Amino acid sequence: MTPFNAHGQVDYDNLKHLVATQAEANNAILILGSTGEGLALDVLEQQRIVEFVCNLAPEVPIMVAVGGFNLAEQVRWVEFCNTQPVDALLLGSPLYAKPGSKGLTQWFDSLLSATNLPCMIYNVPGRSAVSIAPEVLTNLADHDNLWALKEASGDISHFEQFRKALPRLAIFSGDDALMPYFAQAGAVGLVSVAANAWPEQTATFVKRALSGNHPNLFSAWRDAIDALFSVANPIPVKALMHHQGTLNTPHLRPPLTHLELDSIATLDQVNQQILSWD
Questions:
Q1: Distance between alpha carbon 129 and the CA centroid of its chain, in Å?
Q2: Choice among 122, 164, 181, 207 that is catalytic
Q3: What pTM was estimated for this model as a whole?
Q4: DSSP letter at 30?
């Protein structure tokens, strides 16, 4: 989450608190992803956020998102990240262009070749407008730093196809609600929106999903996840965190706005449910 003050600038005091909260829950930290509104920040703001979080030196891994549509700019961003004490990169598909498998292979090959950091490829057709085909992973198999895949297509059949294409790849669910099902299929973790609002509870949710010994996890969390995605992410989670007192303001960068939500009554209700769930 990237917190903003009433003037739309990054609230670094609030960001420090958010990092500490995730570290206390022993959750790894992803910055500048879609939930962090990375594409709404200019390069200098992005760089300062990375430097700021790294200087806090949380005792959990830090992953930085790489996303956009201009390959040369993204390679330069990766090169900047190489100079920082970050632990991994999240590589998104190029936006809007809708390349095929050959174009996606070239895109990811260039980014993977620009770093030695472990990299997680991000399959999110709902945002990039193109789905990564399993053959893309096969094409990239020679990259030792291709470590993981964040699978957020919402289709469990794709998960199995990815596992067959590159068995060594660690696969993380990119959908909070589907974590129990992805865990049964072999997922190793979750890249979560819910953890911003409920860091300790989400950590427990993931551990229980991975253990396979806790039925009905989906039904217990379904309403909460639905509420977090009632309008475009991260609008609901920011509104909820402001209601919790975790964020100083619910403000987002345009074109997103907290005014999309007419009421936080549902968010308040699911917040009480999750806080008492554990």
A1: 17
A2: 122
A3: 0.95
A4: E
Question: Is 102 an annotated catalytic residue?
Answer: no
196-234 pLDDT, tens digit per residue, is: 999 999 999 999 999 988 888 888 899 999 999 999 999
Task: Return the bridge partners of 90, or none.
Answer: 65, 120
The answer to whether 181 is a known catalytic residue is no
Given 96, 102, 150, 207, the catalytic residue = 150
Please check the confidence at residue 176 and state whether its pLDDT lies above 90: yes
The sign of the torsion formed by the CA atoms of 121, 39, 199, 194 equals negative
Task: Tell me the one-letter amino acid at 107.
Answer: W
55-92 tens-digit pLDDT: 999 999 999 999 889 999 999 999 999 999 999 999 99
Residue 262 identity (one-letter amino acid): D
DSSP assignments along 179-241, one per residue: HHHHHHHT--EE--SHHHH-HHHHHHHHHHHHHT--TTHHHHHHHHHHHHTSSSTTHHHHHHH
Check if the beta carbon of residue 171 is closer than 8 Å to that of residue 139: no
Q: Is the peptide bond before 215 cis (omega within 30 degrees of 0)?
A: no
Q: What is the dihedral of CA 44, 94, 259, 247, to 10 degrees?
A: -50
146, 121 contact by CB (below 8 A): yes
Mean pLDDT of the chain, nearest integer: 95
What is the C-alpha to C-alpha distance for residues 55 and 251, in angstroms, rounded to an integer? Answer: 25
